[in-house]
Amino acid sequence: MSHDDFFAELGIQRDEDAGDAKDKPKSRRQRRMEKVERRQRKRRRHWLTSLVIIITLMAVGVLGYKAIGIMRDASAQATHAEDYKGEGEGEVTVTIPEGASGADIGDILQSKGVVASGKAFANAAKNNPKGTTIQPGTYKLKKKMSASSALQALLDPESKGDHTLTVIAGSTKQSVKERLKKVGNFTDEQIEAAYADSAAIGLPAEAGGNVEGWLAPGTYDITENATPKDLIKKMVSQTVTRLKELKVPKEDYQKVLTKASIVEREVNKEQYYGQVARVIENRLTQTDGETHGLLQMDSTVQYGLGHDGGIPSEVETQDANNPYNTYVHQGLPPGPIGNPNEAAIKAVLNPPAGSWLYFVTVDLKTGETLFASTNEEQKTNTKKLSDYCNKNKDVCEGNESKKNG
């Protein structure tokens, strides 16, 4: 391409051409060509501008994509945690403490070889709506579980390895021992040793070394490595706490528990606790009346005989060798005859006003109990029980009818 052609292509006129153009008038053809050239130059300028813009945008896009990729990789590296695959193998026992967070649980699981990393578990728990509902306790899990599998196992009640011991209100220390043997797989020797170790179980001196009445009703977890002393200590501690909260003077601890245990054993409906407590108070204070200061409670006699419920025979009620026989021994028995609940204790501390000295349960299905102030009234009520039993022999036979006097 010549210089002239090059300048013409760019639309630049050489000086001599410009001078010639001034001297010579342009033909119509030249004017048309100039118009065409101007349009072409304009198009080329637009095309060059668009090309620059496109190239610029493409460059920005490439750089942005790379930046996003770098950020994504950085984020992935930040959240990535080593994890196993599958549901694991073998078996391991893990205890989750009260108040443990997802991160805390993850660390515990990692230390036990359940998950590859605590972080993987924490991430799984965070991404699961139920991840914050894991309950404290002891669980039987597998080793080398994926974080999600471990989480599901902890959310499954079937995975809980805890055993629970329920102390029923009114039950005796013998009943509690049998439950400890069955549920906790403890031996007679272990439990009796715990019962006898007052210092280890925190038994107050007021108990005189006897745990009866001090084993608070409730449900207790038998966790990994728990001993009979651990569990019994919790029961005793709960009873002490209840007595303190109810502001019972220490010197009255044993007396209150003894009365409450009788209330608990004599009637099976809380609505009657207060009235039975009043009967006990009236009988203890009226030493020269009809009852001569005798409680005459079947439950105490049966406890002294080693029986769990039932009605003593006439011979048994006359046996003075039984220190718990309140038909012949005035006042309270030597100690509690069971482990009372809080409602029975409250009833003893604040019994309703009344002159009752007697009571009898006249319907063994509903637990309906009638109270009387005189022996004649009691005889009338007892007749109602006899009529009931004549009509419901299958119910009365082998069942304990609650009567007094």
Automatic annotation (TrEMBL):
Ranges of biased composition (kind: Basic and acidic residues): 1-24
Annotated coiled-coil segments of the chain: none
Transmembrane segments: 47-65
Biased composition (Basic residues): 25-41
Keywords: Cell membrane, Cell wall biogenesis/degradation, Lyase, Membrane, Transmembrane, Transmembrane helix
GO process terms (BP): cell wall organization; peptidoglycan biosynthetic process
One of the record's GO cellular component terms: plasma membrane
GO MF: lytic endotransglycosylase activity
Catalytic activity: a peptidoglycan chain = a peptidoglycan chain with N-acetyl-1,6-anhydromuramyl-[peptide] at the reducing end + a peptidoglycan chain with N-acetylglucosamine at the non-reducing end
Function: Functions as a peptidoglycan terminase that cleaves nascent peptidoglycan strands endolytically to terminate their elongation.
Annotated family: Belongs to the transglycosylase MltG family.
Name of protein: Endolytic murein transglycosylase
Protein's organism: Actinomyces oris
